[in-house]
Amino acid sequence: MPGGRRPLVGVLALQGAFAAHQRALESCAADTRQVRLPDDLDGLDGLVMPGGESTTMSRLLTTSGLFEPIGERIEDGLAVFGTCAGMILLARDVLDGRPDQRSFAAIDIAVRRNGYGRQIDSFEADIDVPGTDREAGIGTVPFHAVFIRAPKVESVGPSVTVLAEHDGVPVLARSGRMFVASFHPELTPDHRLHSLFLQEV
Ligand code: GLN
Question: Is the CB of residue 122 below 6 angstroms from any atom belonging to ligand 1?
């Protein structure tokens, strides 16, 4: 962060797992603000879109008046980290979504809602994130990833870098200052992915 000040990261707080993201970000020396209304976007250095229920979040983004201003901030290059339902909200294509479900189409991936199927609604897996980002401590120890009715990435465009896969399926990816994960990095005490994101804010 230029000037050494603590970054101010908004956490979309319409629904879902926002409080755990706040705790993770704060433990990585960021300040956080719950985002519920357009004014809450003022002065943010980054934004986290948490897991939850993407259809509900889509509806609340519209009724709160947040959808358009967030879309504009994303186009202006705001750093964004979308996890699980947040990943669905950022995806170019949402498969098995509700017909009225909206997404920001901000990262060139196609995701299938609940794509891991009912029999494994939720599961946990250790995933390797190859590459060595020393500052964030990545590339040394695997991440314990918690998947909860997770979206499955079905295709990835050329502008997207896949950072980690599980069983050959991308589960963590980035495109510029945007990061998406199909799992819940805020539910484990390992905050290296939040640190990685904070390098971009
Ligand atoms: N299945 C949820 C959805 O479609 C996402 C689940 C989650 O965020 N843990 O929005």
Answer: no
